[in-house]
């Protein structure tokens, strides 16, 4: 086989691999994905309810195990940092540190928001398929007759969906965390390093205001 043919075949194979990767799509539909995540987390919260009482470490471990694989922390980091995620305000190293710190509390915050509805039933709202890379799936939790909508915005990562934001009863947690981070930057005199080190997103504070 001459060199030209070898190069041609190599280029064809690589192109096929790249194209296949570029157009890969999650096998699950967005509603099926969210139902799997919700049912898995809620069933564990219910099954271990007695063990989880007054045991924040156990709650965090359970939520991390059942939710962490499905969170797109990079996308959420960009949402929360807002303009501070640009090169004008922060370096790549600072953004990486923010994501590392934020991920430690992100699961805790999602779990806190989610666990409030762990003893209620829910219905999945009708979902209209779209070509969006960030579809939204909404669950209506039945809390003593009151419907509480929890919407999940997803990210298409190529082979599976991941959660990039959550909205509880019309409250966008990503936006609220962004406001909290901006306030933290201000309290630290615009020092991004100090703001990143001191930032503690609080989902309970956001939801309890409603």
TrEMBL record:
The keyword Ribosomal protein does not apply. Keywords: Signal. It holds the Pfam family MlaC. Residues 1-24 form the signal peptide. InterPro entries: MlaC/ttg2D (IPR008869), Tgt2/MlaC_sf (IPR042245). PANTHER family: INTERMEMBRANE PHOSPHOLIPID TRANSPORT SYSTEM BINDING PROTEIN MLAC (PTHR36573:SF1). This is ABC transporter substrate-binding protein.
């Amino acid at each position: 086989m001459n060199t030209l043919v070898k190069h041609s075949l190599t280029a064809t194979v690589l192109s096929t691999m790249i194209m296949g990767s570029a157009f890969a799509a999650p096998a699950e539909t967005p509603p099926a994905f969210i139902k799997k995540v919700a049912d898995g987390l809620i069933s564990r919260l219910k099954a271990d309810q007695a063990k989880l009482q007054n045991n924040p470490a156990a709650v965090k471990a359970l939520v991390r195990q059942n939710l962490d694989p499905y969170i797109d922390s990079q996308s959420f980091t960009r949402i929360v940092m807002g303009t501070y995620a640009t090169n004008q305000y922060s370096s790549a190293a600072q953004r990486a540190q923010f994501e590392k710190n934020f991920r430690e509390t992100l699961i805790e915050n999602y779990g806190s928001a989610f666990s409030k509805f762990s003893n209620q039933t829910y219905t999945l709202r009708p979902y209209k398929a779209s070509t969006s890379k960030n579809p939204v799936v909404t669950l209506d939790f039945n809390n003593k007759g009151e419907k509480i909508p929890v919407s999940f915005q997803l990210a298409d990562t190529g082979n599976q969906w991941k959660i990039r934001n959550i909205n509880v009863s019309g409250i966008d947690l990503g936006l609220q965390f962004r406001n909290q981070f901006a306030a933290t930057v201000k309290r630290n005199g615009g020092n991004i390093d100090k703001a990143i080190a001191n930032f503690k997103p609080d989902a309970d504070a956001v939801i309890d205001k409603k």
